[in-house]
Design brief:
Elements lengths: L17 H7 L6 H15 L10 H5 L2 H4 L6 H18 L2 E8 L2 E8 L2 H11 L23 H8 L5 H13 L2 H13 L5 H14 L3 H5 L3 H8 L4
Antiparallel strand pairs: 1-2
Helix pairs in contact: 2-5, 7-9, 9-10
């Protein structure tokens, strides 16, 4: 699979500690270990709260990430286990086994001051996670463009008045509807908000039907082409 490059418009950049580049990365000589290390940095940064950790099952549940470790899930799990072991041996990750609901659960922390502090607290019996805290719904999936990015990249700069209408639409319609409506507008070269809004309103009233709007008549297209935002 070939990387198509960064998307047009503003891209979100994640934070990576300088020590990763200056100290850790030069030591890593295993691709799986590198992927797992970067994944932990990415995912823990998206979590809330002071105590941030992952379970092995959290990584396994992320199909997009696991597909990068092997072509089959069985082989990917094997590679993940080896990569986690290498991260522990290197000291990148710290592991603590805790009892949750009468079961031993392995928690993986990044080797940071907070991670080391938590490991010590666990060893002293001063902290354990609640059952609810064990699930972290984050996946390694491409981020969706918000409605403002879609408009500026495909239509024109946003005016203050239009920004309110876009905010209302983002609240009222599903994200995949909005993306598809913009895609249809671009394909038909009807680059104005009223046309996009009309598509969304029609789907809301009659049901989501992409095929119908892709077959939009020339008369309808000209009607919206003459409109202004």
């Amino acid at each position: 699979m070939k990387f198509d490059g960064l998307p047009e418009g503003k891209s979100h950049f994640d934070r990576v500690p300088t020590a990763f580049f200056t100290e850790l990365m030069p030591q890593i000589d295993h691709l799986g270990e590198l992927k797992v290390t970067l994944y932990f940095l990415w995912r823990l940064d998206r979590m809330e709260g002071d105590l941030r950790y992952l379970l092995e099952d959290d990584l396994i549940a992320d199909n997009h990430f696991m597909s990068g470790l092997a072509s089959s899930m069985q082989e990917a799990k094997k590679n993940l286990s080896e990569a986690l072991s290498r991260c522990l041996q290197r000291g990148t990750l710290l592991k603590a086994n805790v009892l949750v609901c009468d079961q031993q659960v392995a928690l993986y922390f990044f080797n940071s001051p907070k991670g080391r502090e938590t490991i010590k607290a666990i060893e002293k019996g001063m902290w354990r996670p609640s059952d609810e805290a064990l699930r972290v719904p984050i996946e390694l999936i491409p981020e969706r463009l918000n409605i403002y990015q879609l408009y500026e990249e495909n239509i024109s700069p946003i005016t203050p008045l239009l920004a309110e209408a876009l905010a209302d639409a983002e609240r009222d319609y599903p994200a995949n509807w909005i993306e598809e409506a913009f895609r249809i507008a671009v394909e038909k070269n009807v680059r104005n908000w009223r046309y996009i809004e009309a598509i969304l309103r029609r789907w809301q009233e009659r049901g989501y039907d992409v095929r119908e709007d892709r077959r939009d008549t020339e008369k309808t297209r000209q009607k919206y082409t003459n409109w202004e935002d």
